Amino acid sequence: MAKKLPKVDVVIVGVGWGGGIIASELTKQGLTVVGLERGKERKTEDYFMVHDELRYAMRYEMMQDLSKETITFRSKTSVRALPMRSYGSFLLGTGLGGSGVHWNGQTFRFLPYDFEIRSKTIERYGEKKIPDGMTIQDWGITYDQLEPYFDKFERMAGISGEENPLGGKRSQPYPTPPMKMTPSIKMFQEATKKKNLHPYMMPSANLSEAYTNPDGVSRAACQYCGYCERFGCEYGAKADPVVTVIPIAKKTGKFEIRTHSHVRRILHNGKKATGVMYTDVTTGEELEQPADIVVLTSYVFNNARLLLMSKLGRPYDPATGKGVIGKNYAYQVIRGGAVGFFDDKEFNLYAGAGALAMCLDDYNGDNFDHKDLNFIHGANISLSQLGLRPIANNKVPEGTPSWGKDFKAASLKYANRFLSVGAQGASMPFRHHFLDLDPTYKDVFGDPLIRITYDFEEQDRQLAAYCADKCGEIVKEMGATEKIEINKKLGPYDITPYQSTHNTGGVIMGASPDTSAVNNYLQMWDAENVFVVGASSFAHNSGYNPTGTMGALSYRAAEGILKYRKSGGGIIV
């Protein structure tokens, strides 16, 4: 029997970017909020002088323990899913701040096309352009409606950038200027401008200069040390929840964080939630936290899993296409790209930052004509200088022996003499791509694991090949003197090698409860006092990193919660 605790206004499940934003916005308005985080406490001091690539990048110090909870995967329904026992395709973060602590800081706004993708595609090409089984849908919100929330997130985080010439209109410039332009980035800029493309510096949560945000939080500028992805930032220069929104929520005195608290069920009466049940992993004690409003702000997989385990919302059935929880799982097409080797130039590739890059959107969204192409959408193409750490980076030309004298010679020669131009492709949902509960495998508490059913489609292969060719053209224009390697082949999805942690969908947003789980305030159609915040709401994945769009939707969700509270109930419109 779980011990029942005193009731609060709001309980949030997971204290990362979504949870931190919700807590900050609600506590400023006087609501009492409890944040349940299954991982441990974190603070900036934990990362002072800890540039340990082996511990963090290779041994996944900040990631979820897969021996206690993982996912299962299968490529199609006719095969048995098996657990992911070691990290590969994507990484699952844990701890206070969530994946927002160890992200790179690349902070894009999805394109206007993304939010009305079905309508815009049909309008330009006709309905036959959408292949059988592709379940794209409009999001129930437009870019213009979401723009003020993008701006709010960027000002809170101090995003450093310049206007995207092919992106949606902005109400204000970025709060801080773009990051430094390195020699390699300058080469990319010159080459792409010669090709009449539209390069711009990547929007970065790694501060280009000291900044104080509207909440009064001051942070220092980036030092370009190259330890961003998979690491916490020892300078506080990389925006993360622990150094931005969480301190503001705590300062109000209305926010209580309980770490090591593993939420296992949403409690409800069939129409509304009454609270959550969680286990204190330090003692094994089961506790019930009653609340007027429940907000799920954990990772994509856990948001869907909690709803399915709690029997809240209608599970998606791929056979009929009915139901919504688990629908439209999407990933990212990350394979297309090109590498060029240079005999006559040397670069300082070991200096960098997680979002130090220049990119372009000429081949993203619907910014180019797809009439004669066998895919829709596209990819953001970029040259990044993230900072090559010594263990994981040892690029040599194809055909080089994998060991011995020749390998050592090529490693030394090309350590700072290669540049990569990469394509981050959009991922479209299909009827047979979904999340559900695995009937066989369970976590350490005996609860079923979430199961992913997914594979790359012809849409993805065509997109990857097209964008890889464009990357190769850019590398050639940059003057690579050795063989240019173009990675354009996309085979079946393989969960073994790392690709991207940009998982989306499962609790998608839309204009109708028939085709979506939440409305454009991320409020559940089937349980009005439950809000589900995160990239789980994305009805497809764009050619960008998801955090900027997720942050904007989090601010809108906070506004919706306050409206719901003030109105006394009902679906917010």
From TrEMBL:
Signal peptide: none annotated. Residues 437-553 form the Glucose-methanol-choline oxidoreductase C-terminal domain. Residues 143-329 form the Glucose-methanol-choline oxidoreductase N-terminal domain. It comes from the Bacteria. The keyword Oxidoreductase applies. Pfam families: GMC_oxred_C, GMC_oxred_N. One of its GO terms (molecular function) is flavin adenine dinucleotide binding. Keywords: FAD, Flavoprotein, Oxidoreductase. Belongs to the GMC oxidoreductase family. This is Gluconate 2-dehydrogenase alpha chain. It comes from Brevibacillus centrosporus.
